[in-house]
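Worked Example 4.2. Consider the chain below.
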Amino acid sequence: MKKSCAVIPHNGLGDNINSVSMCKYLSTIYKKVYHICRYSFHENISLFYDKYKNIEVYKLNCDFGKNFFVNNIFKTVDDVYLLGIHQNNKYKRNIEEYTNIIGDIKLYDDNIVPLSFYNMVNINPNVYFKYNIDDTKESNILYRLIENIDYIFIHNSSSSGIKF
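Applying the procedure from the previous section yields the following structure tokens:
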């Protein structure tokens, strides 16, 4: 089992949630998994990992970019999984510099979100579904309460602002 890895998803809350399954899967391969997210999302993302003692949600006060790559945590992990925007040309030009700092960086390119996050780092997209839901007593009770009710969840805001 490898020592540790860091998963660096897109900046939005939804993008971070789409990466939860990946982190749970990686927790079966690594002794320690760091899920990197914005400070404002830390509490919400941490709730997904209550039963996963080897996954730590690492919060950043700043936007993603070069500054957080030089933080000490990235000097100690075995692998870094860069997703989405972190693989675009803006960041690729500094990959050699980042590799010198943090070691192996796994890259791939695709266009279909959220499964593209998995393709980008050569993880089978089925992991997204297999590790997505933790079956708990509470979730089963809630499901039984609403299983025969038609409903639609919508929200009018995202990390980029109010949409309607």
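Residues 137-146 form the longest helix (10 residues). Confidence is low (pLDDT under 50) at residues 88-111. Compare this with Example 4.1 before moving on.
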